[in-house]
């Protein structure tokens, strides 16, 4: 039951998130004040993401969370994120 709830939350999160492209053609799945979520695919070149994160003054995390900070429930899925200061 708990796994079904988490899967539903993850599906809603992904479906409701607006995807945007940066000038460097980097896809951003979600933006929060504390972090940027690039996506969950591990089959991408991390180099442009790392550079984008560095330019934003953040720390790149290849296994961050997709969820909004403070979310009560969150699926355990690795997401490529930029943790902002």
Q: Which features would summarize this protein structure in a list?
A:
alpha+beta; 85 residues; 29% helix; two-stranded antiparallel sheet
Protein structure class:
alpha+beta
Q: How many domain units?
A: 1
> How many strands appear in the DSSP assignment?
6
Low-confidence stretches: none
Mean pLDDT: 81
Q: The biggest beta sheet, please? A: 4 strands, antiparallel
Radius of gyration: 13 Å
Share in β-strands? 25-35%
- End-to-end Cα distance, whole Å, is 36 Å
Characterize the structure shown.
The termini are far apart. This protein has helices at residues 2-16, 46-55, and strands at 20-21, 27-28, 30-31, 35-39, 59-64, 79-83. It is 29% helix and 26% strand. It has one domain (2-83). It has a four-stranded antiparallel sheet with strand order 3-4-6-5. The chain has a two-stranded antiparallel sheet with strand order 1-2. By secondary structure, the chain is an alpha+beta fold. β1 (20-21) and β2 (27-28) form a beta hairpin. The mean pLDDT is 81.
């Amino acid at each position: 039951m708990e796994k079904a709830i988490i899967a539903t939350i993850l599906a809603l999160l992904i479906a409701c998130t607006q995807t945007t492209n940066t000038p460097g053609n980097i896809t951003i799945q979600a933006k929060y004040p504390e972090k940027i979520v690039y996506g969950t695919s591990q089959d991408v070149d991390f180099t442009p993401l790392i550079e984008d994160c560095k330019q934003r003054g953040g720390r790149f995390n290849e296994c961050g969370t997709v969820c909004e900070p403070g979310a009560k429930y969150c699926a355990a899925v690795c997401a490529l994120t930029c943790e902002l200061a």
